[in-house]
Amino acid sequence: MKTASIILAAGQGIRMRSKLPKVLHPLLGKPLISRVLLAVKDITELKPVIVIGHGAEAVRQAVGDEAQFVLQAEQLGTGHAVSVAQEVLEGRADLVLVTFSDMPLLRQETLAKLVQMQKDSHAPLTMTSIVGDVPRGFGRVLRNAAGGICAIVEEADASPEQLAINEYNVSAYCFEAGWLWSALPRIPISAKGEYYLTELVNIAVQDGHEVQALVLDDPSEGLGINNRVHLAEAESILRERVNTALMLSGVTLIDPEATYIEESVLLGQDTVVWPNTCLQGSTKIGADCVIGPNTIIRNTQVGDRCVLLASDMESAVIEDDVSVGPFCRLRKGAHLAKGVHMGNFGEVKDSYLGPGVKIGHFSYIGNAEIGPNVNIGAGTITCNYDGENKNLTEIGENAFIGSDTMLVAPVKIGKGACTGAGSVVTEDVDDDTLVVGAPARVVRKLEKRD
User: Fold this and answer.
1) I need a labelling partner for 212 at 20 to 30 A (CA). Which of 42, 95, 299, 442 fits?
2) Cα 308 to chain centroid, rounded
3) Closest CA to 338 of 313, 325, 357
4) Regarding the domain delimited by 3-222, which CATH topology (the fold level of the hierarchy) does it fall under?
5) Could you tell me the pTM of the whole model?
6) What are the CA-CA distances from residue 38 to residues 25, 31, 108, 224, 384 (Å)?
7) Which residues, in sequence order, are CB contacts of 379 under 8 Å at separation 6+?
8) Which tens digits make up the pLDDT trace of 196-214?
9) Which residue among 80, 335, 341, 361 is the active-site one?
10) Every domain of the chain and the residues it spans
11) Is 440 in contact with 426 (CB distance < 8 Å)?
12) Rg of the Cα atoms in the chain
């Protein structure tokens, strides 16, 4: 039995007060539409169909080939939106799952259960509902004396007695496909001139069919995004889900409510994350690390037993036993090998720092290859950009770079070499050689250091 998916994403989202289409607003690092796509991805056998309208081209570009698209050129309600998908789906599936792009908290497990309920049912459709004190403009689910569903009434059309009902329509449905296509033309037009999908519940009941509802165990799954207040609420709920799972897996979060971790991030056992830390993208952090407070890490690989304090890191590689911070920045291409230490106010870009390298503080290392056990003095700068090209600085193992040294690339500092404080190095330095001055001049040869 094949299942197709329709995602309704044509609305304008006026209450977001934004130039960006509502479905592209990010939620814990992913656009709303992407989260809904993830929820249906492994449930349906056909590529999801997204009904687009407002901001259609932007939505197409954001989603790419993960879905197929149909355009609802005229916004005539949710029932009409589903009908425009009929042409591409009719005859291709036995069941049709319909969800909304502004309801990103519905879990994949919940939607799978909804589909299974419809597969096991002889009814033409299965709907979802929540029970609680969360009206949010949702339609009310009306039940008869026997507890069966008899109608859905929109909040704007509900009587005071109906408004007091605390079971709400979540607007995720699974339909028997043939019945859906035949019933859509029967939806009456509303006073607003629109065709509401909820009328299909009423039509099914009027035809003598039973309509069943999957009542969600977690009412937060039914949160719809109508404005930025709702978006912040959803962000909080999703962060709580992610943080709870991490803590149950063996990660310590000192203050989960003050910690932002996207679900794509992996953290090892016994790692401790302090407040005001933000971990994003494809970041992977090993075991027994201490992260934060006040640390931002994006798309970065971190080994075991690292201490990363109050620093910003993006697209970097950090091996085991590295300490960084406070107030350091690792930019794209930074690679810190095992045992590297960076003190406060250091920046590294497109550079490899070998095992045991020490950068105490106030230094910039860009486009450099630094060997093992090099000491970089305070205020050292690799002058890597000549106005046209980025040039390489090479520093051999066991070298000692004095404070306030300017390394004017391209330049190579030999193994065991040493620069005096304030040196401006414009030419290569041989192994085990001391240079000082501006420009730096050779003073003497040094004894080899182990």
Assistant:
1) 42
2) 22
3) 357
4) Spore Coat Polysaccharide Biosynthesis Protein SpsA; Chain A (3.90.550)
5) 0.90
6) 16, 11, 8, 17, 44
7) 362, 363, 403, 404, 405
8) 999 999 999 999 999 999 9
9) 361
10) 3-222, 235-445
11) yes
12) 30
